[in-house]
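Q: What structure does this chain adopt?
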Amino acid sequence: MLLQDMKINQDQFDELARLMDGGVRSYSGRAMYGSQCIGYVPGRYAQGRPDLFAVHIAMMIAKADNNGAEPDVYDLMDALDELGPASVDSMGMSSIYYYPNIELEEGVSE
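A:
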């Protein structure tokens, strides 16, 4: 799967929010021109782990690359490499970590 072809649906969004104990948001970052992508704001009560957010997204990529089958560690490493580092924007007292190449399907809500 090409990363730019990946879109997060409502079920995936809800699962990420559950895994990250909240903090998952839709976000339109710099130079996105209104497109919405997946983002994570570490909060006081959330896990506060952007690295875990990346791993959860990489698992979704690896599963898609394996036609839904559970990926092994090598598949996960390849997906993390494909994902690359998150973009980060400061939002006053917090930051948002986001992946502009992973858009949300139309209609996905928080």
